[in-house]
Amino acid sequence: MGRVVVEVMPKPEILDPQGKAVVGALPRLGFTQFTGVRQGKRFELEVDGEVTPEVLDAARQAAETLLSNPIIEDVVAVFDATEVRA
Known about the structure:
This is Phosphoribosylformylglycinamidine synthase subunit PurS. By secondary structure, this protein is α+β, with helices and mostly antiparallel strands. The protein contains two helices and three strands, in the order E-H-E-H-E.
């Protein structure tokens, strides 16, 4: 079984109240090195078999039409969950 990860973030010009709340709480917990937070969404889509380029293309289409609101969000990543990401 394969798994595709889709990451969606608010567009930069959209206010992010959840991110603002988190960035306000971080210093109170001793995390003073962070100056900004944007909170997004992560979806994990399971598929039968391996993740092929065709599966990734279908996931991109699903991300753009269903998993994100293109007016206020950007699809920032679509990748095979077995990929090593920094």
